Amino acid sequence: MFVISTIDYKLYEKFGYIIFFVALATMLMVFIPGLGSTVKGARRWIDLGFISFQPSELMKPALAIGIAAYISKKNIKPHNILGYIVPVCMILIVCVVMYFQSHMSGAIIMIVIGAVTIFTSGFKLKKRTVILICITVVLAAALFLFTSDYRMERVKAFFNPDLDITGSNWQPTQSLYAIGSGGLFGTGIGQSRQKYLWLPESQNDFVFSIYAEEFGFIGCTVVVALFMLFISRLVSLVLKTKDLFGLMISAGIISMFAFQIIMNIAVVTKLIPTTGMPLPFFSYGGTSLLINLASIGIVLNVTRQRRAS
Amino acid sequence: MSLAFASIKHKKRLTLLLVCAMLGFVVVIGRLFYVQIIKGDYYEELAYKQQTKDRTVEASRGTIYDSAGNILAISVSSNTLTIAPTNIPDENKASIAEEFAKILEMDADSILAKLNKKVSLVTIASNIEKEKAVKLSSYISQNEIKGAYLDESTTRAYPYGALLSHVLGFTGVDNQGLSGLEIEYEDELSGIPGKIVGSIDGGGNETPYDEEEYVEPQNGYDLVLTIDATVQSIVEKNIEKAVIENKADFGNCVIMNPFTGEILAMATYPDYDPNSPFEATNEEVVANWDEMTSSERNKYLNEMWRNKCVQDTYEPGSIFKVVTASAALEEGVSDADTKQYNCSSYMTVLGWDIKCWRYPRAHGTQCLREGIINSCNPVLMQVALKLGIRDFCKYLEALDLYSVTGIDLPGEASAQAYTPKNMTDLDLATTSFGQNISTTTLQNAVIYAAIANGGNLMQPYIVKEIKTPDGNIVKSNQPVIKKQVFSEETTEDMMSMLYDTVNTGTSKAAQATGYTIAGKTGTAEEDRTGDVYMASFAGVAPYNDPEIVIVVSIYNPTSSAGHMGGIVAAPVAGTIIEETLRYMDVDPNYSIEENTKEEMIVPNLIGMAYSKAKEELQKLNFKIASDVSLEADTIIKDQVPKAGASLTKGAYVRVYEDETKEKLTVTVPDVRGNSESYATSRIRNSGLNIRVIGSGNAVIQYPSAGETVTKGSIITVKFADTTDLH
Q1: Do the Cβ atoms of A180 and A269 come closer than 8 Å?
Q2: Are A56 and A106 within 8 A, CB to CB?
């Protein structure tokens, strides 16, 4: 984070395409036999022997950088709808790769990051464009849902909480047990019972459930408030920049954090169907943590440049 | 470098996004509030339920004692040591095996071999005694040996085997009562299981939380029965003898205290072993077991488990005549001694000729007493007709003969009898002598108890006390007089008639050495083809000061000795009474007519030379006998019978030169029905000695016919006047 924060973000504008294509290339590498590894049916990791690397994590900031660089370099004007075809294509390419990685949640994040980046660029919203986007999103979602059994299962389970308690509903139900057990004050540090094999992935996407069980509603509120402070602080710093490119990549990166945080908590509290959304800084995963820190580094540099200039 | 400039518009958009994000955060906080605060208790409870696992701690089932404190049924706990070899590090195996071997007193090498097995679980030892189990468990916990399990389980044991099996019943695999007292008193015996609430993970294993909750089991209550195991064994031994000797289907017997209603013995033969209740006891069934269908097996087993004293009813036959006679006395329609009845060997009622048992020989003019003594059907029919249907049925009602006794045993059968509504004079006539009515053996005992105790209908019961395992009495059953059915005058008359019946009448064969008995035999037709009979005896002893009421029923006797109650049931009842009262320390106050034959005491011959012994015996009018021919100077090492036995003249004493050598044996001949002289010669010709009790024809013998005994053994034969026994 500190190293990255010293790198001038303007370099990203220069090497924006390269960054994007390098990220895209690593994402494609998972499909190379012997290099890519499959975990729980999803082909998302590159096995480097000593560590496995998740290229999609790298793609998150890379996408924001790529789109921002394109818009910035080509000086696309907000009313120039055709000028946005390339950024949209970038998003679509990433989503297609994600689809083959069986990574729906990742694709959603990409769409959000891309959309936010484009949105901040000042892209002029016309009614028919909005309708077109909505239709595309619905179609894409339907495609994802109906082409995968386990996604259908999860959605079905979400709408029928009493069915399949030991199957698709097990994880969200166990998550609720954990969070509910926390009550107001929680069971205390290390006192979670649900982490004893009851709640699957309790170190991963569902780590917040265990946190909620041990720290209670008060602890949860503190964390969420810290996240809110974190997001709003970043935004308020970024708002002071005068550079659109800096603003766009920061917006993309911040939206990545905000979206993942909100979605993760929504999933573990069974507000929405289960999807593999990590909780930044909480969930297990080296790549994710590394990229998250690096991303903040980028944003910090954007704010630092403001001061410098 | 960058051409674009971040305008207000761009910043507004970012701010809008921030607002959206903040709204999202607020929504998730709201959701957390809902899940943790509003629904928190609900989820916590569900979570607790799945996170904890109740391990049941079995309550120990109560013990069943007889009235003398003997244990009839007990739960024995035993421990099993099981090892998961893979959980034990190889380097520890030798020392663990050694320690186990020391505690279990087993061979260390064989235990080590088991520990080295490549299996998931191996049983080291089962049925481990408590003391060793305690040592094992402390060794395992102190050394934190993972993969060693000591499990306790309880099994029900019946130390007396088949004794009282039909009353006790038995338990199933989970120690739940399935039959008899075990099921009747299930709630009292079973206790309340305790539990250990432990914390487990999603895989069902224990978690590091040791906040276990322990709810102590409440052990079952003990039962103390009114049954006396000794009396019970006297009864069972004799009923078994009677059933086998008379080639009967089965036999049963109840002994009851007439003043309290306590059941002292209740037996059915054939019996079974409640330790292994699912094993057939009938040899024929055992042989065919594999070919039997499961429904055939179940049918057989259910029949084998039936307590026929209370679960089945039979037509009582002549033993029921006491009800007719007592009712008539009570209602004043007849006295005991006025000769007002006539027997012409049959009687016509509503156009039907009903025979007396002695048909075609008529009894002639008789009083009621003679009617009972002779067991004359026409007398009782006339008495009943005089009494009338309404008054007769009043006594059936009063004696609970339209229902059950209410004893604390499962599956009691209700007596079946005509009611005033559906009874005709013909039914009244047959019911008067115990046909066309059916009762249980227990009900018959209750009726005779009322005659013996001055007319009170007692509530029979089999559980005297219910106690906690510490011995505190939870419930103590006291004698209950349900009602007075007859007056004392009536029962006094009735008792004297029953006394005469045993003394001089049709039940003479019941006479016992040392005790006076009042009683009545019965020979009931159990089907209308005249093929199946039930021989029975119901009586009270001693006559003057009743201690016990006894009812013996032998169903379908088919031996050459016949099917008459006076022959089949009375002698065995007499023996049971004699042995029981002697055990109960009741002073003998009577003896069967003394034997006129002079008996001499057998001298001690051991150590004498053969010639000297022969001389000694000849002086006493005894004869000497031997398995092999002996020299005159052979020293005698053994003799049968032993010195001190009483024998009549002409008896043989067998001598042996080598007491360790196996002696010759012989099968006991069946002398029942034989005259005294014929029986004596048959027994002596078999190389046995006879001891004669009473006079007349042989009615019962000990040991039973068919048994194998050493030559020279004494066969005790009871004789009685068997003319006109019924």
Answers
A1: no
A2: yes
Q: Which residue has the tokens 């590091």?
A: B208
Classify burial at B135, counting beta carbons within 10 Å of its beta carbon; exposed 0-12, middle 13-18, buried 19 or more.
middle
Alpha carbon distance B69, B189 (integer Å): 17
Contacts of residue B30 in chain A, CB cutoff 8 Å? none
End-to-end CA distance of chain B: 135
Give how many domains chain B has, as a whole number: 2
- In whole angstroms, give the CA distance from residue B726 to residue B712: 35
Kindly list the residues from chain A whose CB atom is less than 8 angstroms away from the CB atom of residue B43: 176-177, 179-181
The answer to whether residue B621 sits within a structural domain is: yes
Taking the CA of residue A51 and the nearest CA in chain B, the distance in Å comes to 29
Name the helix (H) or strand (E) containing B538.
strand B533-541
Residue for token pair 């088949």: B162
Nearest to A265 among B28, B36, B199 (CB): B28
- Asked if residue B332 belongs to a domain, the reply is no
* pLDDT value at B9 more than 80: no
Please state, in angstroms and rounded to a whole number, the distance separating the CA atoms of residues B143 and B109.
Answer: 21
| Residues B726, B722: Cα–Cα separation, whole Å | 9
| Residue A246 touches partner B, C-beta closer than 8 Å | yes
- The residue of chain B nearest to residue A258, with distances taken between CA atoms, is B21
List chain A residues with pLDDT less than 50.
309
> Which two tokens mark B346?
């049959």
B205 falls within a domain: yes
Residue B324 near residue B401 (C-beta atoms within 8 A): no
From the list A168, A201, A225, the residue with the least C-alpha distance to A276 is A201
CATH number at residue B673: 3.30.10.20
Domain ranges within chain A, ordered by starting residue: 2-308
Nearest C-alpha neighbor of B680 from the set B705, B651, B644, B702: B651
Question: Of B220, B249, B277, which one is at a domain's C-terminal end?
Answer: B220
Q: Taking CB atoms and an 8 Å limit, are A75 and B6 in contact across chains?
A: no
- Best of A271, A272, A305 to disrupt the B interface (most B CBs within 10 Å) is A271
pLDDT at residue number B552: 97
Tokens standing for B102? 């020391």
- Give the rounded percent of residues in chain B with a pLDDT score beyond 90: 53
Residue B205 is part of which domain span? 56-220
Predicted confidence (pLDDT) per residue in B307-364, tens digit = 999 999 999 999 999 999 999 999 999 999 999 999 999 999 999 999 998 888 999 9
Task: Please name the member of B11, B25, B47 whose beta carbon is closest to the beta carbon of A194.
Answer: B47
| pLDDT tens per residue across span B506-531 | 888 888 888 999 999 999 998 877 78
* End position of a domain, from candidates B220, B239, B274: B220
Do residues A168 and A162 make contact, with C-beta atoms less than 8 angstroms apart? Answer: no
pLDDT tens-place string over residues B194-229: 776 666 666 555 555 555 667 778 889 999 999 999
Going from the C-alpha of A159 to that of each of A141, A145, A152, A153, B39, the distances in angstroms are 17, 14, 11, 10, 19
- Would you say the C-alpha torsion B157, B161, B163, B169 has a positive or negative sign? positive
Return d(Cα B693, Cα B700) in angstroms, integer: 10
Whether B691 is covered by a domain: the verdict is yes
Closest to B485 in 3D by CA, of B442, B451, B531: B451
The Cα of B44 is separated from the nearest Cα of chain A by a number of Å equal to 4
Amino acid at B230: T
A194 part of contact set with chain B, CB < 8 Å: yes
Can you tell me the ipTM of this complex? 0.85
